[in-house]
């Protein structure tokens, strides 16, 4: 009777260890849906629940998966599946967290422009959606690596097409400007883009609404817009 009892205890332990491996992914899903449904801010959902608590649970889940492997080695027929599932889930989760940490570790700003002396201003409609932030001038907007103005006057249609190609929804286009917005899929982080068109020069600005640090995402989007404005040889 002792042997079946130990086997039953080992199986129960494996189930709990496997559940521990799923804790971080489940928390991330809760953080995403809670943010999308407005239960908490994107800063709390991404910055606290996911990147802080979720990271701790991810490494705890990996430790639990390794323990599950050790237990399963005594009886692979009963515990092999639990060990394999927990190890795959926990390993993939930790790998994704490490990749995101490398991405978020890049020092960058959420409001970037190709013209720091006089950043393009957002339209009144965009400013209303931003709660009045990002009014004008170069005070709040900063430069980022490899982001430069386009040394020519582009057509409004070209500006709108560049925004669309970069994943923005075009909010408006006029003879000397174009505006767009992009909402992220997971946590709903929104980036606004403004293109200012002048004789001999076109400037770009991209700014996030929420103020949540996510690495160089604003820079990446701005550079993508500039690439769409640049003629390909």
Highlighted features:
single chain; 233 residues; alpha+beta; 7 helices; 53% helix; elongated
Structure description:
The protein is α+β, with helices and mostly antiparallel strands. It is 53% helix and 14% strand. The protein is built from seven helices and five strands. It has a five-stranded antiparallel sheet, covered by helices on one side. α1 runs parallel beside α4 and α2 packs antiparallel against α3.
Quick description:
With 233 residues, the chain is an alpha+beta fold.
Give a topology summary.
Elements lengths: L1 H20 L1 H14 L5 H31 L3 H29 L6 E3 L10 H6 L26 H10 L3 E6 L2 E7 L6 E9 L2 E8 L8 H13 L4
Antiparallel strand pairs: 1-5, 2-3, 3-4, 4-5
Instruction: Provide the gyration radius in Å.
Output: 24 Å
Strand content: 5-15%
The number of helical segments is 7
User: How much is the average pLDDT?
Assistant: 88
Question: Ranges with pLDDT <50 over ≥5 residues?
Answer: 135-139
Largest sheet: number of strands, sense, barrel closure: 5 strands, antiparallel
Structural class category: alpha+beta
With strands numbered from the N-terminus, the spatial order across the biggest sheet is 1-5-4-3-2
Q: What order do the SSEs take from the amino end to the carboxyl end, as H and E?
A: HHHHEHHEEEEH
- Approximate helicity band: 40-55%
**Shape field:** elongated
Q: How many extended strands?
A: 5
Could you give the distance between the termini? 79 Å
């Amino acid at each position: 009777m002792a042997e079946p009892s130990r086997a039953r205890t080992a199986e129960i332990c494996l189930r709990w260890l496997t559940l521990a491996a799923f804790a971080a992914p489940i928390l991330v899903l809760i953080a995403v849906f809670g943010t999308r449904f407005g239960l908490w801010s994107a800063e709390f959902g991404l910055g606290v629940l996911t990147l802080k608590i979720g990271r701790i649970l991810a490494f705890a889940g990996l430790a639990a998966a390794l323990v599950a492997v050790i237990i399963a080695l005594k009886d692979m027929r009963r515990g092999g599946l639990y060990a394999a599932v927990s190890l795959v889930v926990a390993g993939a989760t930790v790998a994704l967290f490490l990749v995101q940490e490398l991405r978020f570790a890049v020092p960058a700003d959420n409001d970037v422009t190709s013209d720091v002396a006089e950043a393009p201003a957002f339209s009144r409609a965009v400013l209303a959606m931003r709660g009045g932030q990002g009014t004008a001038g170069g005070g709040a907007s900063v430069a980022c690596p490899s982001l430069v103005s386009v040394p020519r006057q582009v057509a409004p249609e070209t500006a709108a097409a560049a925004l669309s190609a970069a994943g923005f929804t075009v909010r408006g286009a006029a003879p000397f400007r174009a505006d767009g917005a992009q909402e992220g899929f997971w946590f709903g982080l929104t980036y606004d883009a403004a293109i200012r068109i002048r004789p001999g020069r076109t400037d770009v600005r991209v700014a996030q609404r929420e103020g949540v640090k996510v690495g160089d995402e604003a820079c990446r989007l701005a550079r993508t817009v500039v690439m769409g404005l640049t003629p390909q040889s």
